[in-house]
Specification:
Layout (H helix, E strand, L loop, with lengths): L5 H4 L5 H4 L6 H21 L4 H24 L6 H17 L7 H4 L6
Helix pairs in contact: 3-4
Amino acid sequence: MAITNRSMAEYAFLRGLYGDGYYPDRVVDLGRAVLVRLCERVEAERPADLTALYVLTHAATEEFNALEAEFEAAGSEIETVAREEIAENFWAVATAYGFTGADVEELIAPREW
């Protein structure tokens, strides 16, 4: 399924990580795929409220948790710069779909990074 929300279809997911040699592009690509799937799920499931949105973002956060091993195997990690970039991207997704009242910390509440 292609993203239909124009701002998200054109969004440069994880741009700050792609520009930093510490983060291997092949691993960042996996993170980008998580965010694209999140957009697709939001569009398909159309969460009615923040509680429903948080269910989707928490599932995506769990996918990022699983990626930590990929980062480590590539000699990298999800540290401060990556955490902030990922959180910013989750916030961008929430606001693009009209959830301007979303709490960024709640969007990524189950994070282990």
